[in-house]
Amino acid sequence: LLASTLAIAPIAAMAADLTIGFSQIGSESGWRAAETTVTKQEAEKRGIDLKFADAQQKQENQIKAIRSFIAQGVDAILVAPVVATGWDEVLEEAKDADIPVVLLDRTVDADKSLYLTAVTSDLVHEGRVAGEWLVSEMGDQDCRIVELQGTTGSSPAIDRKKGFEEGIAGHDNLQIVRSQTGDFTRAQGKVVMESFLKAEGGENICALYAHNDDMAVGAIQAIKEAGLKPGEDIKIVAIDAVPDAHKAIAEGEMNATIELTPNMAGPALDALEAYLASGTEPEKWIQTESKLFTSEDDNQAIYDMKKDLGY
Ligand code: GZL
């Protein structure tokens, strides 16, 4: 027992000395806020000194923050990359400084040697599950779909769109008639849904697919203001499974959501500690689970459980 305890001590000591920079995208959605809360909790649990930088959804602010972390000589860097491109140069700089980088919840179009690992869900799979749910819901009924895309150029927006189209492929009764970014926010989700309703006529829209719940919650407001019943006149499926999505489903105003865990940092920090302590190379992708929730689930109970988790 003593030997094993002593073996743990140095790692614990190592963790106590770790300083890690976290370049967070912003607080554009409830899910993002929860990820920030959980990341700070996970660092605290490990005795890690976490340097936090909020980029207000601007890539140049993330690049500045990463350069600042490099100048500070942090032990490692966590990045949730707002868009998929434009990271090569700054990731090269981190590599030259021998500082490992771990990606959270989004991926980048850069050589995999430029980051230690990416902790994300299967974003294409999430979109496919959403499409397949709508196929099962609509059967052979015609359904004109509008789509609220995530942030333009982000890996979730690209992959969730791709997956959804795969999910509805071969079912020609399901057609995407409008598709536009709502930048993952409630405010933009409402504004863009208002434009869809105006352009198409609410009675001609059968379903909304939103790349995250926050845009769906904004769209629900617009649908109500247009005198229509969200969840009935217009079916709504989205992704994240934030508390307000479970609440909307419990109230019959939304129909389905796919859960994205806000705890990407746990697996990320475990991989970093193992790498820094003993050079253990993790897989390049640490995949988190995705779970579909519908009106069949006890959404009120899930809302009550999730509502205090920092969303
Ligand atoms: C997906 C993540 C997305 C969430 C949104 O992995 O990057 O960013 O689905 C958030 O809520 O804005």
From TrEMBL:
Highest taxon in the source lineage: Bacteria
Secretion signal span: 1-15
Pfam families cross-referenced by the UniProt entry: Peripla_BP_4 (PF13407)
Keyword DNA damage assigned: no
Main location: other
Keywords: Signal
GO MF, one example: carbohydrate binding
Periplasmic binding protein domain sequence ranges: 20-266
Localisation: Cell envelope
GO cellular component, one term: cell envelope
Phosphoprotein as UniProt keyword: no
NCBIfam families in alphabetical order: YtfQ_transport
UniProt family annotation: Belongs to the bacterial solute-binding protein 2 family.
Name the record gives this protein: Putative sugar uptake ABC transporter periplasmic solute-binding protein
